[in-house]
Amino acid sequence: MDKLINYHKPAEARLFALLLTFSGGFIDAFTYIKCGRTMAAAQTGNIIFLSAALANHNFLGVVDRLGSLIAFIIGLAMVSILHARLRTDYWRVVCLLPILLVGTVIGFLPDTFPDYLMVPAVSFGLAMQSAAFSKIEGLGYNSVFTSGSVKKAAVAWSEYYFHHDYSQRKAALSYLTIVICFTLGAIISAQLLPFFRMKTIWIATFLILVTDSSYYLTKKKKANKNNRQKKES
Q: Which of 153, 155, 158 minimizes the C-alpha distance to 177?
């Protein structure tokens, strides 16, 4: 368990990174399939679709993609604001609350709920998740899209195999695991969506709740341990 949870740096714990990445792939696939090929987090794809919508004079398509892009940017900015303003070590716990709230509410919504309202809310929450938890064992990664992790995995494996740089082995394995988790999340989401419809998102929401709660308890345990050590000294 110690290999999965870093008690010295809980925000970089492998377990939390894998759970959040699985959830990120799960939710991104959910919005892509359910909301007319609009991605909640993969803004590269949204910009391409936005360009296509402009070229085809698809006003609703422009609104959907632009709304997601703007909400994602605001979510990233919000994390910086909270980190600066909240005088607590638990600011990351707060940063996961928006996606938990959004995911919970979406599960109760009808299939006909407007995409241009739902997707920006999801984008905002995923952006905050992405910015709050951005490292796995000291390595930068992203839990809500995976193109960067694919690149880093390929580069690390290449350095390890072709240049015998054994220091890259850990990075190669970490990024490969991240890519696999994201892919599995997306595949499982796509398979479950026809059966559970809007409630499908509750699976990812539950995993994020587990992550948030576990992170809080880990930080609390670390704080209590430090306080005991100070009293003993």
A: 153
Query: Tokens in use for 173?
Result: 């394995």
Amino acid at 28: D
Q: Is 202 exposed, middle or buried (0-12, 13-18, 19+ CB in 10 A)?
A: middle
Residue 200 is given by DSSP the state: G
pLDDT truncated to tens, each residue of the chain (233 aa)? 556 776 678 899 999 999 999 999 999 999 999 998 888 998 988 899 899 999 999 988 899 899 999 999 999 999 999 999 998 889 999 999 999 999 999 999 999 999 999 999 999 999 999 999 999 999 999 999 999 999 999 999 999 989 889 889 999 999 999 999 999 999 999 999 999 999 999 999 999 999 999 999 999 888 787 777 777 66
What is the distance between the alpha carbons of residues 222 and 21, in angstroms, rounded to a whole number?
24
Q: Of 118, 147, 119, 145, which Cα lies nearest the Cα of 131?
A: 145
| Token code pair at residue 212 | 């948030």
Number of neighbouring beta carbons within 10 Å of residue 232: 6
Asked if 144 and 43 count as a contact pair (C-beta separation under 8 A), the reply is: no
| Gap between the Cα atoms of 182 and 20, Å rounded | 9
Amino acid (one-letter) located at 186? A
Written as six digits, the tokens of 107 are 């599960």
Sole residue written with tokens 């939710």: 27
Q: How far apart are CA 94 and CA 82, in angstroms?
A: 8
Distance between CA atoms of residues 200 and 190, nearest Å: 9
